[in-house]
Amino acid sequence: MDAATVDAWLTELGIVPIGRDERDGISSWDLQLDGLRRADIRVTLILDPARTLVLWLHFAPPISDSFRVSYRQFLRWNDELPFVKFALSADDRPVLTSEMVVDRLDRDALGLALCRLLAVCDLTLERSLVWLHPGARVVPAMGRPSRQVALFDRYAAQLAELLPSEEEAGLALSDDRA
């Protein structure tokens, strides 16, 4: 596994990094992606070629409401959502992560993991309104088509639980903030 391989996979997936860095054998890519409902989601990929690829997404700005309530919400979502984990950074920013071991990594595993993170951002959008758009009563419209429609189309079958059709209710998530 090496950075050039990840570069090639991103190109094949139609993703153009907005930043790229390498230090001490560790490579990183900064991406700005869209969900189907939430725009301009910043994702960082961090590759340790001997061990893992970490997908790190700043989910929301620092939490300003009751810390305990927000933290409990993230812990519940960790139980309810497969293959992703919520956490809080040192500055109380909610982050959403996924980790992949390099011996199971390929283009489609990376594409599916990225799409899964974006789908979780969409799925939790209403419940995250208090963090993402304080004071707003409804989620603002994206205002343009998603740049990742092809990515969602490519992995829709594997993410059916996270991408419900209009007739289906989809995955029911808890809401501890109510």
Q: Largest sheet at a glance?
A: 6 strands, antiparallel
Task: Report the principal-axis shape.
Answer: globular
Tell me the fraction of residues in β-strands, as a range: 15-25%
Q: In terms of per-residue confidence, which ranges show pLDDT below 50 for 5 or more consecutive residues?
A: none
How are the strands of the largest sheet arranged? 1-2-3-4-6-5
- Helix content bin: 25-40%
Number of helices: 5
Describe the 3D structure.
- This protein is of the alpha+beta class and 178 residues long.
- It has a single domain (3-159), classed as Yope Regulator, Chain: A, CATH 3.30.1460.
- It is 29% helix and 22% strand.
- The chain has helices spanning 3-12, 67-80, 107-123, 129-132, 149-155, and strands at 19-23, 26-33, 41-48, 52-58, 85-88, 94-101.
- It has a six-stranded antiparallel sheet.
- The longest helix has 17 residues, at 107-123.
List keywords for this structure.
6-stranded antiparallel β-sheet; 6 strands; globular
Quick take:
With 178 residues, the chain is of the alpha+beta class.
What order do the helices and strands come in, and which of them pair?
Blueprint: H1 3-12, E1 19-23, E2 26-33, E3 41-48, E4 52-58, H2 67-80, E5 85-88, E6 94-101, H3 107-123, H4 129-132, H5 149-155
Antiparallel strand pairs: 1-2, 2-3, 3-4, 4-6, 5-6
Helix pairs in contact: 1-3
